[in-house]
Amino acid sequence: MLVAYRSPQERARPRVTPPPPSPSSGSPLETIPPEPGSGPKLCAAAERRPAPPPALMLRELEARLALALDHREPTVDELAADLRVSTRTLQRRLTQAHTTFERELDRAREARARVMVREGTRLRAVAATLGYAHVRSFLRAFRRWTGSTPSSFRRAAASEADLAPRDLSDHAVGHEHLDPPARAVASGT
Predict the structure, then answer these.
(1) Is 87 exposed, middle or buried (0-12, 13-18, 19+ CB in 10 A)?
(2) Tens-of-pLDDT digits for all 189 residues of the chain?
(3) Could you give the 3-state DSSP secondary structure of residue 69?
(4) Backbone angles phi, psi at 83, to 5 degrees
(5) d(CA 52, CA 58)
(6) 179 secondary structure, DSSP code
(7) Which of 17, 46, 74, 189 lies in the 20 to 30 Å Cα band around 170?
(8) For residue 16, is it within any domain?
(9) 93, part of any domain
């Protein structure tokens, strides 16, 4: 006979025993009508789908990290649940892709930081959005990523935008940007 171990806390709680079957029925299951949707519940592992290949999972992880960074600091457990795989499977797939969750989180932070700094977002807001408790921590990470401070990065991005070739059709002189009938109306001919 196999006896299950019960901890002291479990032994302190009273056992709840099911009521005995009614004498009019041979089986207790026949007396209780089934409720809709009360079928057997699948455990979390059974609800998961097969894990996608590492490259596909990495792209999905990158997209979900980018979305999650706007709201909170994502954890490996949360993202594994979002991807519908176990935490261990996610870690295995990342290892197969020669990376780690921390490295991918760092890459997502870097990409988001570059965009926010280029847009002129205040450094305190950038640091808070990316999950840094202090602006100094963010500045240290930004220098590690880019080799420069956010202000010099912002200046360099602005000068690159000024030097970028422009499509002159958007900045046409006179009425050249209009289609021929509208040009004729605008010029009075």
Answers:
(1) middle
(2) 445 556 666 666 656 555 555 555 554 444 445 555 554 454 454 455 565 677 777 888 888 888 888 778 889 999 999 888 999 999 999 998 899 999 999 999 999 999 999 999 999 999 999 989 999 999 999 999 999 999 999 998 888 876 656 555 544 445 455 455 555 555 555
(3) helix
(4) -85, -5
(5) 9
(6) -
(7) 189
(8) no
(9) yes
Phi-psi domain of 11 (left: phi exceeds 0; alpha: psi -120 through 50; beta: other): alpha
Count Cα neighbours of 106 within 13 Å in the Cβ-side half-sphere: 13
DSSP state of 33: P
Closest of 115, 108, 112, 114 to residue 60, by C-alpha:
108
> Are the C-beta atoms of 64 and 82 separated by less than 8 Å?
yes
* Number of domain units in the chain: 1
CB 97 within 8 A of CB 54: yes
Answer whether residue 15 is part of any domain: no
Does 90 map to a domain?
yes
Taking residue 30's Cβ as centre, other Cβ atoms within 10 Å add up to: 11
The phi, psi pair for 60, rounded to 5°, reads -65, -40
Rounded Cα gap, residues 163 and 33, in angstroms: 75
Torsion sign, CA atoms 148, 152, 157, 163: negative
Structural domain boundaries, residue 121: 47-161
| CA pair distance 42, 48, nearest whole angstrom | 10
- The CATH number assigned to the domain holding 66 equals 1.10.10.60
